[in-house]
Specification:
Number of helices: 12
Strand content: 5-15%
Number of strands: 7
Order of helices and strands: EEEHEHEHHHHHHHEEHHH
Number of domains: 3
Shape: globular
Distance between the termini: 37 Å
Radius of gyration: 23 Å
């Protein structure tokens, strides 16, 4: 049975407390402050009462401090959306709130939840969020190991400092390898993430690491255009134009975890698999590339390859069939069998 939304909730998150604002069908706004801990979350759910399943909530994403509230609301059946704090403030200004405090921000977020009433937004499950956190931890461990290896380059191989860095790098590599195995086992218990992981691996030049990253970092809701999804990774030039003034398009922002994962696949595709090497060389040789990036023509060409690979991954996930060299025709796409998920 379809649940009719009756409560719209905005939550402004802080480290020790948060302010919640609820707007009912009558348009009246009520605000209350809670502690950002288990008793405070329980108080929020009691405040929502029996109408909790008919609630849509918009939370301000503040580091890790929103996690407790977000997961409790998801378990209670609430429709949850997250917004960046800077966007939350821009929304408040756009709605006419001139003051700046937690209550005002919570009211603006509640109004945002009200405007999202007609949309069927999809959020990642708690299990999918755990897989994403685990994936990021693995990449952080690998980054630390790479830092130790970088440090070894300027040290005497016979020195104690070199040996200490070597031991630390080796230990971190072993931890990361073990965590990769644990993640691969855990993903079997989350069907949607497993589906994305297996389909991403079917794309040429996409290995386990890139598939792992993409499967957890892409938005839960893929009902967006290809440009919007690749822009989410920070791989689409942003226009800066007002009147007669126009700056060169710039590539910036986006999800850094997703961008890093696709970067590894692009480098492999260009310099190891050679699949995109001719295209990379053509793009690099263009003298009139006006997109603003750090790294010159090389990085501009690599970003183009990254965008192409991510587009391939998104395509197979959306159509729910593995990658093929020749794209399926429009008449036969519906008949393409879905990929059979095999244990990895």
């Amino acid at each position: 049975m379809e649940i009719v939304l009756q409560i719209f909730l905005g939550v402004d998150i802080g480290k020790d407390s948060f302010v919640a604002c609820r707007i009912g069908m009558d348009g009246k706004a009520l605000s209350r402050k809670f502690s950002n801990d288990e008793p405070g979350i329980a108080g929020l759910l009691r405040w929502l009462g029996d109408e909790t399943p008919s609630c849509r909530a918009v939370l301000e994403a503040t580091s890790r401090y929103h996690r407790l509230c977000e997961r409790a609301l998801l378990r209670a059946g609430v429709h949850v959306d997250l917004v960046n704090p800077r966007r939350a403030r821009a929304l408040a200004v756009g709605l006419g709130y001139s003051d700046k405090d937690d209550k005002v921000d919570a009211q603006a977020l509640a109004q945002a939840a009200r405007m999202l009433e007609a949309k069927d937004e999809k959020v990642a499950s708690v299990q999918a969020q755990d897989l994403r956190d685990h994936s990021r931890s693995i990449d952080t461990i690998k980054r630390q190991a790479a830092n130790f290896m970088k440090r070894m380059e300027g040290l005497d191989p016979e020195s104690d400092a070199f040996k200490a860095c070597a031991k630390a790098a080796q230990a971190l590599k072993e931890v990361a390898a073990n965590e990769e195995k644990i993640w691969t086992q855990a993903v079997r218990d989350e069907p949607e993430t497993l589906r994305r992981y297996e389909l991403a691996k079917s794309v040429d030049d996409v290995g386990h690491v890139t598939a792992r990253v993409v499967s957890v970092e892409l938005p839960a809701n893929l009902d967006k255009s290809l440009r919007q999804l690749t822009a989410y990774a920070g791989l689409v030039p942003r226009r800066h134009q007002s009147g007669n003034n126009e700056l060169p398009p710039e590539i910036s922002g986006g999800n850094p975890w997703l961008r890093t994962g696709v970067f590894m696949a692009a480098m492999h595709s260009v310099f190891v698999g050679k699949r995109f090497l001719p295209w990379y060389e053509t793009l690099k040789a263009r003298p009139n590339v006006c997109v603003k990036t750090k790294g010159g023509r090389h990085l501009k060409a690599v970003v183009a390859v990254m965008r192409k690979i991510l587009a391939n991954i998104i395509a197979v996930i959306k159509r729910n069939s593995p990658w093929t060299t020749q794209p399926p025709s429009f008449s036969s796409r519906a008949a393409v069998p879905a990929v059979e998920m095999q244990p990895t």
